Amino acid sequence: MDEIRLIKNCPKCGKQLRFPIDKGTIKVKCLCGYSFTLDPDDTGIYKDARFDLGAGNAAHGAPPLHKPPLKERVIRGLWQYRYNLQNIRLLTGKARRNVIIVTALIVLFFLLIFCLILIFMTTPRKYVI
After folding, report:
1. How far apart are CA 86 and CA 61, in angstroms?
2. In the predicted structure, residue 16 carries a pLDDT above the cut 60
3. For 91, which DSSP code?
4. Region of residue 33 (phi > 0: left; psi between -120 and 50: alpha; otherwise: beta)
5. Under a CB-based contact definition with an 8 Å cutoff, are residues 29 and 35 in contact?
6. In angstroms, what is the C-alpha Rg of the chain?
7. Strand partners, 16
8. Any idea of the CA torsion for 40, 64, 91, 104, to the nearest 10 degrees?
9. Closest among 56, 40, 72 to 1, alpha carbons compared
10. Contact 30, 76 (CB under 8 A)
């Protein structure tokens, strides 16, 4: 399973630090020498930070060696959508807007299907003899 990583700027030099948050309390050290202990249960660390959702175990930004099959990409996309929907408060403006738009389109799609079913179920049938 991929690690969940957070990207946060170093309080001393401003360099972006990328570290796992699913490993429990860890010690983070920047190249400038500044170090601090990080507890993922402390909600203060998430302020001015963002999740690194696309990296997984790949090298920093390196493209994957092969493209996963369509089924796997669809399943990962659905899980990512679910994750984003559950954590909508943590998303940036554009990502939050995308989740809201996709959710509205899904609701409209199911309402359309429901209305079509009602129309065709209640329309009287004319039989020709």
Report:
1. 25
2. yes
3. S
4. left
5. yes
6. 23
7. 9
8. -140
9. 56
10. no
